[in-house]
Amino acid sequence: MAQLIALAGCEEALYRLEIGESADEDVVLDRDDAGVVERDRPLELAPAWARRRVLDVDAAGAAIVVLLDRRPPLLVSHDSGVTWSERGSGLPRGRAVALGDNPDLVLYGTESRLYVSRDGGRFWRAIAVELPDLQDVAWDT
Question: Does residue 125 fall inside a structural domain?
Fold first, then answer.
């Protein structure tokens, strides 16, 4: 499997993390005290009925993932927003979300932890590394 590198923008630094197949393979690669996560947030892709609760949005091709201030926290569409499904009912309150090049690859950030899904948000694994005051997430491409 290809190496997965995530970016975690925290209050005091940007962290690059390698995400392994299991928690014992997750590692911090480096820390940049001046770094920030830079990515587009296509807020207009969120469904109109959910826009008041939107915290973050990301898209890749026809796939859209929307982070909401509610439970379950995620809405996922694989057809450019025609239909939506709820995901992440067991996840803690979120701060940021990012899709990978493969729409099944989803990164979810909470206050101090990252979660990864390799199946479009059906199942999640917590990344073993805890982070201080996480603000944003992205995939390093």
Answer: yes
